[in-house]
């Protein structure tokens, strides 16, 4: 009897930065290494892209996703890349997995991508990114939720180059400083490199306008921390994760790459966990 053989999963990546490079490194060392193939990578400047996986071609135009027979297109390129590549990815692949989830705070974009997915029979996937507890929050939302609060606490270095620089003296802090309290929608819009996670917790729970987000710079920590709390008909949830920042980009967490690796592994593994 011949055993049924699964075809290698054909993956397209959008962005070849800290997260996606780490995803490829982790996958190549994982038990599913032989079961996945990185077929294409969408980049802005092909001449600058280094250490490209052997079988991958570089793309600069979303239309080039056509004909590649992709299973998953995984984005980790920044919020503008979601609008740029999303529709083509959803037409050409079974799933478009978004890491720059903050882009989906634009409700018109979210609705457009969902309707393309529906027409194409594909799926827009919001990965759990740097967060913990999203599975439970999303499950809890099947019953009424009263409140979801998400605090994002990062070292001052992670807030450099963002509007936080004008709101707190990042280099002179001696204690944690809160510099934003507002909706998930506003947090993602104003802090596109640091608050994508606010949209992940919002889409999992009570939406972009009811989810309360607090942003904090803490000189006493080295990790990117997320404190998620919720209560409702299911009971109470309180989850904290202290993420190691990625060596190549301190604004991003190791867990953002690990979540993508989990999503890809679950797509090919006989055990989904
Ligand atoms: N959901 C989550 O938990 C998290 C989400 N993020 C999101 O992931 C994004 C990527 O993170 P990193 O890899 O750390 O950033 P990075 O800056 O190291 O890499 C991003 C790469 O994407 C490329 N790029 C930009 N626009 C592009 C486009 N239109 N098409 C193709 N490539 C493009 C850049 O040239 C760069 O090489 C962040 O900008 C942020 O939006 C980051 C951390 C956590
Ligand atoms: O990596 C993190 O901790 C979260 C992050 O940068 C984001 O949501 O953009």
- The low-confidence parts are none
The hetero compounds bound to this protein are: 1,4-dihydronicotinamide adenine dinucleotide, oxaloacetate ion
Instruction: Please give the CATH class of the largest domain.
Output: Alpha Beta
Distance between the termini: 29 Å
Mean pLDDT: 96
Fraction in beta strands: 25-35%
CATH topology of the largest domain: Rossmann fold
Number of helices: 8
Question: Could you please describe the fold and organization of this structure?
Answer:
The protein has 273 residues and is an alpha/beta fold. It folds into two domains: 9-129 and 254-267, Rossmann fold (3-Layer(aba) Sandwich), CATH 3.40.50.720; 134-243, 2-Layer Sandwich (Dihydrodipicolinate Reductase, domain 2), CATH 3.30.360.10. It is built from eight helices and 13 strands. The strands form three sheets. The chain has a six-stranded parallel sheet with strand order 3-2-1-4-5-6, sandwiched between helices. The longest helix is centred in the last third of the chain and has 15 residues, at 254-268. The model has no long low-confidence stretch (mean pLDDT 96). The protein binds 1,4-dihydronicotinamide adenine dinucleotide (NAI) and oxaloacetate ion (OAA). Residues 129-130, 193-197, 224, 243, 251-253, 256 line the site of oxaloacetate ion (OAA). NAD(+) binds at residues 130, 196.
What's this model, at a glance?
The protein has 273 residues and is of the alpha/beta class. The chain has helices at 18-28, 79-92, 107-120, 134-140, 164-167, 184-190, 196-204, 254-268; strands at residues 9-14, 36-42, 57-59, 70-75, 93-98, 123-126, 145-154, 177-183, 212-217, 224-232, 235-243, 245-246, 249-253. Helix 2 (79-92) runs parallel beside helix 3 and helix 4 runs parallel beside helix 7.
């Amino acid at each position: 009897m011949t055993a049924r053989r699964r075809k290698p999963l054909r993956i397209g990546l959008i962005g070849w930065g800290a997260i996606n490079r780490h995803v490829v490194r982790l996958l190549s060392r994982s038990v599913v290494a032989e079961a996945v193939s990185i077929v294409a990578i969408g980049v802005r400047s092909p001449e600058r892209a280094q250490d490209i996986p052997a079988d991958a071609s570089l793309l600069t135009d979303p239309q080039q996703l056509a004909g590649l027979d992709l299973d998953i297109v995984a984005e980790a390129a920044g919020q503008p890349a979601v609008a740029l590549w999303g529709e083509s990815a959803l037409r050409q692949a079974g799933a478009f997995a978004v890491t720059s989830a903050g882009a989906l705070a634009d409700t018109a974009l979210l609705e457009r991508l969902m309707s393309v997915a529906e027409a194409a029979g594909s799926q827009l996937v919001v990965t759990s990114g740097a967060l913990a507890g999203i599975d439970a929050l999303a499950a809890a939302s099947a019953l009424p939720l009263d409140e979801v609060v998400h605090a994002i606490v990062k070292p001052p270095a992670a807030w450099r180059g963002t509007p936080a620089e004008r709101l707190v003296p990042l280099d002179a802090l001696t204690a944690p400083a809160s510099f934003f309290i507002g909706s998930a929608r506003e947090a993602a819009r104003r802090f596109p490199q640091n608050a994508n996670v606010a949209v992940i917790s919002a889409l999992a729970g009570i939406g972009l306008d009811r989810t309360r987000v607090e942003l904090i710079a803490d000189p006493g920590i080295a990790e990117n921390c997320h404190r998620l709390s919720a209560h409702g008909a299911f009971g109470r949830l309180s989850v904290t994760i202290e993420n190691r920042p990625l060596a190549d980009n301190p604004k991003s967490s190791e867990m953002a790459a690990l979540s993508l690796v989990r999503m890809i592994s679950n797509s090919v593994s006989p055990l989904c966990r």
